[in-house]
Amino acid sequence: MSEIKLDTGISVKDDKPIFFVITSNGALILILSIVGAVFGFFSNNILLIFPSLIYPIIFMYYMYQQEINKEEELSVLVEIPSRQVKAKSFVSVLVKIHSNHDLTAIVELETTEGLFPVEVTNKSIIHVSKNELTTVTFLQLAPRRGKELIKRVIIKYDGIFGLFYKLKRQAINIEIFVLPEPQRVEIPWKLKQRIMDRFISEISIPAKGRGSDFLALRDFIYGDDIRHISWKASAKYGKIIVKEYEEPHQLRFLIVVDASLFMAGPKLEFALSSVIELCTAIYRSEHSVYIMVHGQETLRKVNLNSFPTAIKTMSMNLYDVKPQGTDFNVSTLHDSILHNKLTNTVVILISSLEQDPKLMKYGLTKLMPNIQRLFFIACNTPGFGVMATAAVRDEEIFDVNQMNYRKYIIEPKVQRIYKKRIEEYKNLVLSVNANFHVIESYNTNILLEIEQVIKQMNKLTAKVRI
Questions:
Q1: 445: Cβ–Cβ under 8 A, 6 or more apart, which residues?
Q2: Which domains are assigned to the chain?
Q3: Is 0.90 surpassed by the pTM of this model?
């Protein structure tokens, strides 16, 4: 009998044979007991015979019970609410056991190494009442992105645990898809929409048309709709003036994630998390979004459609992304954009500061004529790696000289190197008429960083006006 459901979660029921198992300790005691009974029989020592026969008799009794109760019912149903979870969240595995007699059992859950039990082990001792359904819950932590497996449930019952018992193995083999983790800083939905609307309005190019947003006033031209005449302005200037309106302009966003080896670790996880956050904010607008994961070459291309499950589908396409290639190749990114007809897009590039600046400038110079705008978002390596764990390492270092050497010599030197690198990257990105922004730590939200980009754009606009 088998039953598999794939709606909100999954349940698996499959009755497997029950085996009678004797452990190595049980077998050793059984052999010693038989040897003791035989020795007592030949030596006519009754005090040795009877104690030696107790364990073999108990063992034979359980063997006999196993033989006559072959048809006993012990059914196992395993349920998982959802096979798709975000990294650093929990997976609940419900094991439901039904039996036609009372029993005490040890229930054990086997999983891959990427799932960690919240309790000390994945074992639980339960009592199952006759003809009642007993449920035991195993809570698993999924700390990192990828694919994990719930392998099987093992139930040991009846007998003397550690010596002999009945065994039922229930194969499950349910795949758990661990999606990119959420942003570490959560912000309200209204704030997300406000930031994204402001960002879109800043980068949109006004287009004349029949929209509802007022654009400008101009002289009347034969053929203009008389409903657009501004009588107040016409009276003021002594000629017919019409209102011009802005036609809604649909933007095409291309979010590019640098998946080179320089991004491996927290930077790549933050980048993938940022993609989901950005797509969620843009999703309900009229603008289209494309995602491209690129290293030495393009690894993944995703088009965010308008279906209700679009965000989840997009997340499923990113759960198994792995770094590839030492460098981020902007030239092959340019070729991929042309090949996929993604020109004239607003590109948000999430990368690092580790690439060769000369090669980066060459690639960006080649890329810029074929896109509308470029926003270069750089993850600063010290904030995502070396300096991020400094407080944790200080607790483990007992050598004061070593701690002071790292704190007062190594870290300031690393900070100076990256401060210089940031300035170099900023100049090269601005030289190709693109926008540049540095993210100092993963303890932020990409939309809050976009808000900082908007402020930088407004400052530059104010300087140009002055």
A1: 183, 184, 185, 186, 187, 277
A2: 2-179 (2.60.40.10), 209-248 (no CATH), 252-465 (3.40.50.410)
A3: no
